[in-house]
């Protein structure tokens, strides 16, 4: 675990905060470059941009720290393992708030306590609720369930209450808890059953579909935060995690400890799922029921994420789902409203079936923040996690996506705008039908087509060619807000392909996504990716997706540098308080030289990277720290 102990700081005239921190701990393994020991803070040089017109000219001066008197690299090498009284921080990132800051509210107006509820039929091949309000107070199984307009089904708050069905269509109301009365009992849920048969393409096949005029309310027990980060490194064999935030998680729930290794993909990752054995009175020390196999770094520069995987409500596919990658799915259509919080999706998604995603806002138009997914989990998905499709003004908040085939947080057609995507975590994203010329090799990827990249077309085994470069966050339109998210793995953590025209169901709208300026990209983190190709990065702005001769869903994708005519054409993109680590390139920007089009990194950090950033076109970097470039 030898790294170049150097830091390049481009300050742009801004001061650095000084933060009291704990000593750095080494986390190495016999697997060599797949484990990281963090970076050594060494001789720091301060560089200040003199002006936009003289961007290539910088002032260099040595920084001397009073606590060590360090003025040369040799002294730092001997001193960096002592307790550090300072830490330079460029990316000052927003937080979601922990259990001390977000206590659960008192419950009120619980739907299952209403006096006029009828009994739900205990069984039936096809159940149709035509009018009135019904209570599910015992587990039941049906072949199909239709809740017509004017009817409502309410779940009782009782342990182990489940409904099994091949399909559920909601034209009225399906209610599992409410915003003021979440369901607290464990094991409540819906199991969607069936296999990939002749009717697999129908919307309702193994699905929960909310039609025009319908409403879906699902609210499980709230936990805060839904994910946090280590406060101390955890060594192999550790039985305890020390985390940064106060958690209200419970004994018996599962937690995910995200990798701090170089890679996070299907055949090579160090993510670990463990069961909580204890949580101490401070809420910051979590005991595990079995020891960790790998080390997970929690030092000054960056820390492994720790996520809660348990929820009181689960929507899942049956065990058959594993045999053919054909799980359940939840789809909310135009004219419906879907408010979902504190729900786990397990064995959801239908591989290479368009529109069959775990949680999906489908062609809903402008929803004005009335539909959202918050505090949810998607684990073991066969196709994506959270999809916003032809929908604007929606919200994805504080969700977790783990073990997902294809891009996880997904803006589908390029017309999706003004959505808020905040404080979400994703890890272990699987590329669909990987290309042999883009596979990692010896710690560094093949060329993957060099600057032009590779050309990928739609085929049955990969219906959307961008899944050859699947990312945690797939961003087809910049006119959205990404705040406080964290991404591990995938071709990239965040990928912004250029779409000259909207695609798919939105191809005739006249929207040109590549002309849209960035709304907000702040406090985001990406790591353990960018290894699939010499010019890939943890954050990747490049590539072009088009439809062949306007044919719906018949795509061509070019993954690399595109011509000015095929690239982005206007707007200023400023990424603020962004952190990358354990990357080939922290940031890869395939830009253009147009004067009206500017890209900037402000408050940027890159640690343990091969290169911090590669930016083409009219770009700048200010207030940045780059450490341990190899």
Question: What brief labels describe this structure?
Answer:
20-stranded parallel beta barrel, 630 residues, mainly beta, globular
Description:
The structure is a single chain. It is built from 2 helices and 50 strands. It starts with 6 loop residues before the first strand and ends with a strand. Strand 18 and strand 19 (285-288) form a beta hairpin. The strands form 5 sheets. The chain has a 20-stranded parallel β-barrel. The protein has an 11-stranded parallel sheet with strand order 4-6-8-11-14-23-26-29-32-38-41, with no helix packed on it. With 630 residues, it is mostly beta strands. The radius of gyration is 25 Å and the shape is globular. Residues 1-86 have low confidence and may be disordered.
Short description:
The protein contains two helices and 50 strands. It is mainly β. The chain is globular.
Helix/strand layout:
Layout: E1 7-10, E2 44-49, E3 58-62, H1 73-79, E4 118-119, E5 123-129, E6 132-136, E7 140-147, E8 151-155, E9 162-165, E10 167-170, E11 173-176, E12 188-192, E13 207-210, E14 215-219, E15 227-229, E16 240-242, E17 254-257, E18 272-279, E19 285-288, E20 305-308, E21 313-317, H2 321-324, E22 329-332, E23 337-341, E24 343-346, E25 359-366, E26 372-374, E27 377-381, E28 386-392, E29 395-397, E30 400-405, E31 409-411, E32 420-422, E33 425-430, E34 440-441, E35 444-445, E36 455-457, E37 471-474, E38 481-483, E39 486-488, E40 492-498, E41 520-522, E42 525-529, E43 537-547, E44 555-558, E45 571-576, E46 579-589, E47 597-602, E48 605-615, E49 619-622, E50 624-629
Parallel strand pairs: 1-2, 4-6, 5-7, 6-8, 7-9, 7-10, 8-11, 9-12, 10-13, 11-14, 12-21, 13-22, 14-23, 21-24, 22-25, 23-26, 24-27, 25-28, 26-29, 27-30, 28-31, 29-32, 30-33, 31-37, 32-38, 33-39, 37-40, 38-41, 39-42, 40-43, 42-46, 43-46, 45-47, 46-48, 47-49, 48-50
Antiparallel strand pairs: 1-50, 2-3, 15-20, 16-19, 17-18, 17-20, 18-19, 34-35, 36-44, 43-44
């Amino acid at each position: 675990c030898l790294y170049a102990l150097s830091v390049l700081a481009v300050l742009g005239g801004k001061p650095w905060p000084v933060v009291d921190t704990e000593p750095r701990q080494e986390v190495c393994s016999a697997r060599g470059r797949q484990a990281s020991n963090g970076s050594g803070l060494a001789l720091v040089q301060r560089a200040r941009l003199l002006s936009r017109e003289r961007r290539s000219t910088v002032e260099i001066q040595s920084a001397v720290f009073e606590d060590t008197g360090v003025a040369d690299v040799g002294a730092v090498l001997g001193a960096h393992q002592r307790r550090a009284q300072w830490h330079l921080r460029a990316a000052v990132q927003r937080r979601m708030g922990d259990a001390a800051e977000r206590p659960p509210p008192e419950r009120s107006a619980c739907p299952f306590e209403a006096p006029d509820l009828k009994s739900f039929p205990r069984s039936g091949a096809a159940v149709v609720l035509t009018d009135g309000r019904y209570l599910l107070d015992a587990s039941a199984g049906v072949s199909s369930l239709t809740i017509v307009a004017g009817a409502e089904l309410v779940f009782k708050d009782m342990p182990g209450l489940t409904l099994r069905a091949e399909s559920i269509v909601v034209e009225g109301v399906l209610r599992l808890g409410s915003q003021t009365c979440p369901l607290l009992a464990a094991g409540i849920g819906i199991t969607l059953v069936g296999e990939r048969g002749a009717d697999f393409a129908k919307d309702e096949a193994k699905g929960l579909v909310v039609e025009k005029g319908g409403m879906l309310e699902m609210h499980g027990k709230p936990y805060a935060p839904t994910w946090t980060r280590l406060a101390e490194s955890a060594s192999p064999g550790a039985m305890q995690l020390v985390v940064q935030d106060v958690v209200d998680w419970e004994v018996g729930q599962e937690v995910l400890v995200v990798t701090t290794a170089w890679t996070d993909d299907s055949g090579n990752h160090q993510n670990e799922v463990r069961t909580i054995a204890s949580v101490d009175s401070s809420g910051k020390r979590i005991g595990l029921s079995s020891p960790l196999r790998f080390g997970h770094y929690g030092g000054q520069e960056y820390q492994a994420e720790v996520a809660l995987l348990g929820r009181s409500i689960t929507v899942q596919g049956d065990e058959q789902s594993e045999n053919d990658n054909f799980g359940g799915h939840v789809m909310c259509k135009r004219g419906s409203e879907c408010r979902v919080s504190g729900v786990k999706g397990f064995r959801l998604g239908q591989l290479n079936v368009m529109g069959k995603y775990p949680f999906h806002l489908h062609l809903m138009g402008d929803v004005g923040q009335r539909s959202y997914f918050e505090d949810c989990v998607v684990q073991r998905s066969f196709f994506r996690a959270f999809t916003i499709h032809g929908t604007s003004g929606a919200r994805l908040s504080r969700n977790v996506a783990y073990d997902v085939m294809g891009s996880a947080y997904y803006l589908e057609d390029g017309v999706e705008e003004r959505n808020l995507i905040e404080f979400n975590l994703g890890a272990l994203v699987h590329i669909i039908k990987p290309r042999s010329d883009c596979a990692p090799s010896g710690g560094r990827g093949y060329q993957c087509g060099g600057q032009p990249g590779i050309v990928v077309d739609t085929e049955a085994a990969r219906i959307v060619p961008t899944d050859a470069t699947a990312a945690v966050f797939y961003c087809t339109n910049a006119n959205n807000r990404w705040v406080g998210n964290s991404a591990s793995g995938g071709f990239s953590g965040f990928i912004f392909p250029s779409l000259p025209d909207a695609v798919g169901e939105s191809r005739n709208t006249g929207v040109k996504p590549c002309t849209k300026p960035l709304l907000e990209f702040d406090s985001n983190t990406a790591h353990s990716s960018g290894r699939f190709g010499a010019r890939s990065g943890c954050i990747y702005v490049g590539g072009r997706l088009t439809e062949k001769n306007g044919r719906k869903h018949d795509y061509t994708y070019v993954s690399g540098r595109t011509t000015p005519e095929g690239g982005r054409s206007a707007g200023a993109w400023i990424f603020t308080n962004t952190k990358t680590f354990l990357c080939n390139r922290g940031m890869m920007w395939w830009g253009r030289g147009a004067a009206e089009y500017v890209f900037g990194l402000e408050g940027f950090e890159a640690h343990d990277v091969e290169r911090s950033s590669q930016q083409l076109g009219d770009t700048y970097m200010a207030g940045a720290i780059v450490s341990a470039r190899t």
